[in-house]
Amino acid sequence: MRPFMLATAGFMLPFAAPAFAAESPEGPPSPTAAASDPETAKAPKKKSEWEFKPRWRLQYDFAHVDGPAGLVGTGNSEEIRRAQLGVDIKMPGGFSARIEGEFTADPVELVDAYLAWNGDGINVTAGQHKFFSPLDDMTSDLNTSFTERAALVTAFNFSRRTGLSAGYVKGDFQVNAGIGTDPLIQLNDVDDNSISAHVRTVWMPQLGKAKLHFAAAYHWRDRKDSSVVPVRYRQRPLVHSTETRYVATPNLLADREQTYGVEAAAVNGPFHFASEAYWHHTSRPAGSDPTFFGAYAEAGFFLTKGDSRPLKGGQFGAIKPKKALGDGGIGAVQINARYDYLDLNSGGVVGGTQRGYLASLVWTPTTYLKLIAEYARLDYRNAAIAVAGDRDYSVDVIGARVQLTY
């Protein structure tokens, strides 16, 4: 890794400073001396402006894929989906930082590595972080309704990037914009890294007891390495533990990418709804310029009294059971349904279409434990993988997850 990259991550970890900030040059004051001084004894203890909060998550997934006889990629699969460890740091002056690593990768990859500043309705972030991707991606993977996000998120290559972003919030409105390049781990892979620009606006009005969410986003990327590194758009059958992709474009040489979409969501007590539609336009130096499309709509309902799905700040938050298991209740139980559509056929490029019909049961016994069971029926047309010469068929998928987090 280049020296400047190490500096990017390193400047966020001033661990030595807070340990001595409250001490005198001679060391910490004596507790006995403090107690003997009436004025000192009466003075309230000053709360440290430095805070360190560890964070970790562990997700174990199981999946079974069933399709026509002879279709590759069917059968059972399992994996540790995520094993992440990191720390949130709160600093004086409105500054904060986060550094978090993914330990299932080899070598270990940085997930988040950024420094942020929050003022009066204004925030600025520098480093590797999310650049205002779709609602289903802005929502933490800890808080999604299914084991995997909507097909469009992965297919259109939304990912964390390294760069600088800023946001402004006033009342029900929020706008974020930023300029970035590739993720940290990719900055040494090619001589000329990409440049991207991102903007997302959100309106979050209250209608009676219902919390609403409307948003629009635009992403532009200049692929500087397009002449040597092709791009491919593809998607797994809505579970991650299998490597098979039944919808996938061939390798494409692409100069620029533009992605734009709209979002809508609502929460009213135990009920929630979310839907998004995104278009991904690819500019190529030769041949046609295809525009691919993805969309989904989902609805969910809590079976346990008093539980609801938080919707705030342009994303869904963590479910906190009203009555956790062991505290007079069984935790939060939620049922969800989703229709998921992905079309990778455009401008002479044939990658196939995927229509998904999904249902899930989510049990959150406590804030730190979550279990998901789901079923999906996937219908394919012009699939990238043929079975007995046929590229139109259906696949059934069963998925499950055990999730621990802190």
Describe the structure.
The structure is a single chain. By secondary structure, the protein is mainly β. The protein has one domain (56-86, 132-405): Porin (Beta Barrel), CATH 2.40.160.10. 8% of the residues lie in helices and 51% in strands. It has helices at residues 3-10, 16-20, 31-36, 38-42, 135-138, 151-155; strands at 51-66, 75-90, 95-102, 109-118, 122-129, 161-170, 173-181, 195-203, 206-207, 210-222, 234-235, 247-248, 256-268, 271-283, 291-302, 311-312, 315-316, 332-346, 349-366, 369-381, 393-405. A 16-stranded antiparallel barrel has the order 1-2-3-4-5-6-7-8-10-13-14-15-18-19-20-21. Strands 11-12 form a two-stranded antiparallel ribbon. The chain has a two-stranded antiparallel ribbon with strand order 16-17. The radius of gyration is 24 Å and the shape is globular. The protein starts with a helix and ends with a strand. Mean pLDDT is 89; it is low at 1-41.
- The CATH topology label is Porin
Q: How many beta-strand runs?
A: 21
CATH architecture: Beta Barrel
| Rg, Å, rounded | 24 Å
CATH class: Mainly Beta
Structural class: mainly beta
Strand order of the largest sheet: 1-2-3-4-5-6-7-8-10-13-14-15-18-19-20-21
Question: Average pLDDT, to the nearest integer?
Answer: 89
Q: Element order, helices and strands?
A: HHHHEEEEEHHEEEEEEEEEEEEEEEE
The helix content, as a percent range, equals: under 10%
Distance between the termini: 30 Å
How many distinct folded domains? 1
Number of H/I helices: 6
Q: Judging from the principal axes of the Cα atoms, what is the shape?
A: globular
Low-pLDDT sequence parts: 1-41
What about the largest sheet? 16 strands, antiparallel, barrel
Estimate the strand proportion: over 45%
The CATH homology group name: Porin
